[in-house]
Model the fold of this input.
Amino acid sequence: MYKQRILEKTLKEYLDTFKAVALVGPKFCGKTTLSERFSKSSICLNPLNVSDYKTMLQLNKDEFLSLPYPKLIDEWQLIPEIWDVIRHEVDHLDGRGFFILTGSSAANLEETAHSGAGRISRLTLRPMSLYESGVSSGEISLQKLFSNNKITYKKCGVTVQDYAIWIIKGGWPEGMKDSEQQSIRRMHSYIDALIKEDINKVTTKKYNENRARKILESLARYTASETTNKKILIDLDSMETSTAENTLVDYLDVLNKLYIIEDLKAWNPNLRSKTVIRSTPARFFIDPSIGSSVLKLTSAKLLKDFETFGLFFEALVIRDLRIYAEVLDGEVYRYKDKTGLEIDAIIQLQDGRWGAVQVKMGSHMFDDAADKLNKFAEKVDAKKMEEPSFLAIISATEYAYQREDGIYIIPIGMLKD
Done:
């Protein structure tokens, strides 16, 4: 059964704006299913039919590109020249929204002769958020927070045990009804296919299976942490997988191209004082279930190890914030300066409005988190950056409310776009 995706609205807007849209994201996140809701015809490429479609493209291009539009070309990267063919074709068509191209690898985007700028726009589909999965009640809207709507005292029906399970299960559409054990098996298979097959399909280089697995393990240990490549190399040495830095960079690059990892960039606001901002990105998988699978975690293990649980809970929150922010034309960043002041997430919209978030599972950490949010807000030059639309602590606790200092407490199990 299809579950409505938040990105539907954005995809519709892109089709109304651009001549073609490239919908990208990791395997099995639902790109094809979403695209089929907007397309009126399709070509679905796979290793068994790619030769036939190559021949059609060469000998009968008009048939390959034929009406009705929008036309979906699924896994277009199997025939890389499709990108330039589409770019050239839409140059001669009046109107918008002719093609939807879906793909699970960014590698071929770099190899195309033309960027497609102004004609083909890219849109990233991530695995499903808690709201899309039906876990979050959606009683609190990120959009309304930016419009200064107040939060009233409300109880959240999602428990700590629920969050642990959904970290393990992830936001994969096909796994929504799986048991935890079924999800674990599914993710182990996903990781095996990634390191044995997928990484070797992206470029002409060959990647070592054991080294790829150890790099994923190191990344999983550093989930939600600002970690340099040097620290990962030290970690690899301790696992008896000595690796040169340029080799590590190569592996990280291919994982990026497959939409497996998605680092959180540093925010560089205008500050009242000359504070040095650290630019090391925080490490995240596109879905927390990837990291939990690599480390062979279960919900029971998370509930016995709240330090690890806290890191993966933050990864869950960041995934959802990215999904919610994207449909608002926003982006999520992180902040840390030389004084040690660190803010887990800054959400900034295209019009300049911004909000700051700390992620804390339990209420015993709220006072410290609130103190840091207030200190951070005071550092930002409001004359150049505007006042924050909101300051919030996103938690795994039971209740949503506004503290006396104005900071919101928001259970992630109540948030939506």
User: Anything to note?
Assistant: The chain has a mean pLDDT of 93. DSSP finds 17 helices and 14 strands in the chain.
